[in-house]
Amino acid sequence: MGMSVTISEAVGQDAEKILKLQYLCYQSEAELYGDYSIEPLTQSLDSIKAELTAGSVLVARLGDEVVASVRGTVDPDGTARINKLIVHPRMQRHGLGGRLLDAIEGRLGAGGTAKCFQLFSGHRSEQNLQLYRKHGYVAVGAQQVNERLTVVTLAKEIGASAYATSL
Which H helix or E strand runs over 155? Predict the structure, then answer.
């Protein structure tokens, strides 16, 4: 009998696991854009530990292994910002990214202060963009960072969730 994946709030001991998973997951993005100096590949362990206390960080576990993670915060203006949705390459294409996205939306939207969700992705990251569109996000802006990368900002209103979520 196989183990099932569980989603929960990350704890301090998860920081190093998240950092290692993030480094693994962002290799394909770095290759896609020809830039291995992107922030997820240079982020420090101390920075991830700070994120654990500053916002909501969820992890998906398969047994004791952290196989996916996502982070989010709610700005004073009510924008719930979701970032660094990562899924271990061997666990991709099985719905885990969507489950984590639903879970972080539920967590960030639960306080009643969030008015909309916002996230971003590189313009060539078609699998990411497809996932976000499937979950009701629409492009609301784009900013060219350099000749290789344009960052697409996507958003959706709080009431636009396609799925009900609870942790």
Answer: strand 150-157
71 within a domain of the structure (yes/no): yes
Is residue 98 within 8 A of residue 86, CB to CB? The reply is no
- Contact assessment for residue 28 and residue 88, using Cβ atoms and an 8 Å cutoff: no
Please answer whether residues 86 and 69 qualify as being in contact, where contact means their C-beta atoms are separated by less than 8 angstroms: yes
Say how far apart CA 131 and CA 129 lie, in whole Å: 5
Q: How many domains does the chain have?
A: 1
In a domain, 167, yes or no: no
Task: Report how far residue 86's alpha carbon sits from residue 145's, in angstroms, rounded to the nearest whole number.
Answer: 22
On whether residue 42 sits in a domain, the answer given is yes
Range of the domain at 41: 5-160
Q: What is the pTM of this model?
A: 0.90
Q: Which letter, b or e, does each residue of 108-145 get, where b requires 16 or more Cβ atoms within 10 Å of its Cβ? A: bbeeeebebbbbbbbbebeebbebbeebbbeeeeeeee
Euclidean distance between CA atoms 88 and 37, whole angstroms: 20
Question: Is 165 part of any domain?
Answer: no
pLDDT at 77 over 80: yes
- The CATH number for 136's domain is 3.40.630.30
What's the pLDDT tens digit per position in 13-47? 999 999 999 999 999 999 999 999 999 999 999 99
